[in-house]
Amino acid sequence: xxxxxxxxxxxxxxxxxxxxxxxxxxxxxxxxxxxxxxxxxxxxxxxxxxxxxxxxxxxxxxxxxxxxxxxxxxxxxxxxxxxxxxxxxxxxxxxxxxxxxxxxxxxxxxxxxxxxxxxxxxxxxxxxxxxxxxxxxxxxxxxxxxxxxxxxxxxxxxxxxxxxxxxxxxxxxxxxxxxxxxxxxxxxxxxxxxxxxxxxxxxxxxxxxxxxxxxxxxxxxxxxxxxxxxxxxxxxxxxxxxxxxxxxxxxxxxxxxxxxxxxxxxxxxxxxxxxxxxxxxxxxxxxxxxxxxxxxxxxxxxxxxxxxxxxxxxxxxxxxxxxxxxxxxxxxxxxxxxxxxxxxxxxxxxxxxxxxxxxxxxxxxxxxxxxxxxxxxxxx
Length: 380
Description:
By secondary structure, this protein is α+β, with helices and mostly antiparallel strands. The chain has helices at residues 4-12, 38-41, 51-57, 68-82, 105-108, 111-126, 138-147, 161-165, 178-186, 192-196, 200-207, 209-217, 248-269, 301-315, 348-365; strands spanning 21-23, 35-36, 62-64, 89-93, 96-99, 132-134, 153-155, 234-245, 272-282, 287-298, 322-333.
């Protein structure tokens, strides 16, 4: 979808059309740009930019707080259209999806004709513009859709993938962010064609597994399958502080609260997690993540927090000031058979009973009805 959040706001209020509109909140606050209209983008404004900077670039911009409820409603209407054209639709986010056209030629015509019908149906049913990329795999379709914005369609014929990618800037490849793009440019790699000329061994030596992925992506090769909606692959929570924090106790308190929320959601799914990932963003907007894989899965607040706080203490040192902290749980699996710990001071079933009681109280009275002492430090 094209500038999805902004497009929804323009549909609800046509007076916004043609104006620089930014969704994200109060420019006097500490939020970031969630979406910007194409008129606003002409001023260099983009997603994740601090709102204060966006206002400096475009003082006349219209800032909106936005409504995730409304955006979810519009998203459901878009996906209802997609479901009419293929039994295999993979949501990527509220405003992006992959659709497999294999076997759907008879009712909907060849891929370009089906794409035109989909785009027209979305416009008619929802009132929003969509850009569509057509390719032999997800990588090519993704890049083609980006190149066709706004409100366009681009079909890359089979066999033309490498020629299509070659002249594009290397940061057009999904997964190549500012840091990776800068490193590649230091190596003299400016275009995807430059990248495709590098030996696989060199890329693997420089970037490890990511180098292998770059080698194949630069050639337009991807074997990633389109997967229908399924169970969550990870659970995450993060928070941006009203003021940058330099006190490690306060950061650890916020992390404790996030770990409790994530663990509570994990228990709702009936799963356990083996991997805990910490996310930190400092006052200079530098963002770092660190992960640790546990010997066995867990859904316990305490285990998850202890793992996350150890990662935090390795990163948060000196006079650093933290802007954002987050935690993610991944490698989710059903719990395996329990093996009793002969040296445990509290039997496993006692902990399970405790968490069932905690979750029951939260269901009845709200999440903050019961918290560990460390998680409530910032509220004192």
